[in-house]
Amino acid sequence: MAKARKIIKRLKAVRNVRKITRTMELVATARFKKAMDRAVEAAAYTRKISEIVADLSQTMAGEGSDFTHPLLQQRESEKTAILLVITSNRGLCGGYNGGVLRLTQQRIREAKANQVDTKIEVSGKRGIGFFKFQKIATAASYTHFEDKPTFEQVDELASRYIDSFIRGDIDRLDVAYTKFETMSRQKAVVETLLPIGKLQQTTVAAAEKPKTTVEYEFLPSPREILEEIVPASFKARLFKCFLDAGVSEQIARMVAMKSATENADGMIRAIRAQYNRARQSQITSELSEIIGGAAALE
Amino acid sequence: MVGDKLRLVIVTPERTLLDEPVSALRFPLYDGDIGILPGRLPLIGRLGCGELKVTTATGEQHFFIDGGFVQVLGPTVSLLTHRAVPVANLSAAEAEKQLAAASARVAKTDEEIKTKLADQQRARRMLALATHR
Fold it and tell me: Please, is B81 exposed, middle or buried when counting C-beta atoms within 10 Å of its C-beta (0-12, 13-18, 19+)?
């Protein structure tokens, strides 16, 4: 019975693993739905901000004044930069962290080649572990961004970046995260958030609303509003990065766990067939032993 | 353009808090309160912090808002704010703590003094709203 027993044990183990992966898949699905809802709700804010920015820039262009802000200005030489890497706190989510970290490494190599002093900040235990293993020093690490990052948490981070950018401590801020494109497509990207790409922002906003100019009353002047709205827009963008990363993480986990469950199903089938065969051959050998024994007695 | 109804949309970075027809509203701009009635001309403004009073057909609602922007376009009023809390949810103790923290901070540069004053003012207004509701 020895072999069949062993196979049964293995079958049970695989079955247990399947139960776990199946549950994780369901949990990830529920979390994904929540994260998605949050992302959709937050999109309203970003949309509104870019709408106002578009209106502002239109009015200011009409007045002939130019559209400048310290956060919009491209530095002539980029010497120092911060690279914020957003990974997950938990594993078992397929290639989610791998994708982001691979891209990060590439970016770090590029920065070294261009002699840009890049400080690395990591969010998520997986990323922290990775950099520790690679012996790459990180300037800061955060683990408090779970799957529900709040705006307040991001705000704190964003204000610090804005301050150091305006002070001139950093010339650029990059964020490496997984961008959510569609349900079936998420891509690891490195985006430059500071300085805010001026053209990109205005064209996106302008493309959204091709409408006739509205004569707004501005309280206070457009310039002063602009001074406030540019940081707000940056914060909204950074917040969106975190939300996107959260949604993508759950999707990645969902997909990974789904394929793990399917794989376990296949294994269970194979092991069951193996077990049946072992059992059959065992019975056959026992039978022939009995028959042999009986024949010997005659 | 003149309608008899306004639609108020309050958007915070995390979610759309409110989206409903209202008859009038009052909220603080950067330099003082402003009232909006139906038929207001287009406006873009910077918000201060303080009380947002919304008058609807069924009664009045009060919120505490904390900075942001307002856009009035046609019948739609969009308030973009970092934080909007119904006044009933404000806690006086919390506001007092914030006020104490802001007052205790030592400000040396102009910038620091400015943020300190702003924080103090915000906490005072929050406290006033929390105690006099």
Answer: buried
Supply angle C-alpha A112, A117, A122, rounded to 5: 95
Instruction: Give the domain CATH number at A276.
Output: 1.10.287.80
pLDDT at A133: 94
Share of chain B above pLDDT 70, in %: 97
Q: What tokens appear for A292 in the block?
A: 């042999």
Report the pLDDT value the prediction gives residue A199, as an integer from 0 to 100. Answer: 42
User: Does residue A214 register a pLDDT over 90?
Assistant: no
In a domain, A296, yes or no: no
Answer yes or no: do A26 and A170 share one domain. Answer: no
In the predicted structure, residue A209 carries a pLDDT above the cut 70: no
CA angle, residues A203, A63, B79, in degrees to nearest 5: 60
Q: Are residues A195 and A54 in the same domain?
A: yes
Q: Does B132 touch chain A (CB under 8 A)?
A: no
- Is the CATH number 3.30.70.240 carried by domain B6-87? no
Same domain for A114 and A18: no
> Would you place residue A65 in the very low, low, confident or very high pLDDT band (cuts 50, 70, 90)?
low
Residue B14 in tokens: 């995390």
A98 and A208 share a domain? yes
d(CA B80, CA A90): 34
> Does the CA dihedral A10-A11-A14-A15 come out positive or negative?
negative
* Residue A214 with chain B: CB contacts under 8 Å: 42, 73
ipTM confidence score: 0.81
Distance between A119 CA and the closest CA of chain B, angstroms? 26
- Asked if A136 and A263 sit in the same domain, the reply is no
Q: Mark whether A40 and A71 lie in a shared domain.
A: yes
Contact A100, A248 (CB under 8 A): no
Q: Is the per-residue pLDDT at A61 higher than 80?
A: no
Are residue A7 and residue A139 in the same domain, yes or no? no
pTM: predicted TM-score of the whole model, two decimal places: 0.85
Domain coverage including residue A217: 31-254
- A91 inside domain: yes
Give the Cα separation of A171 and A168 in Å (integer): 6
CA closest to B19 among chain A residues: A44
When pLDDT is averaged across residues B68-94 and rounded to a whole number, the result is: 88
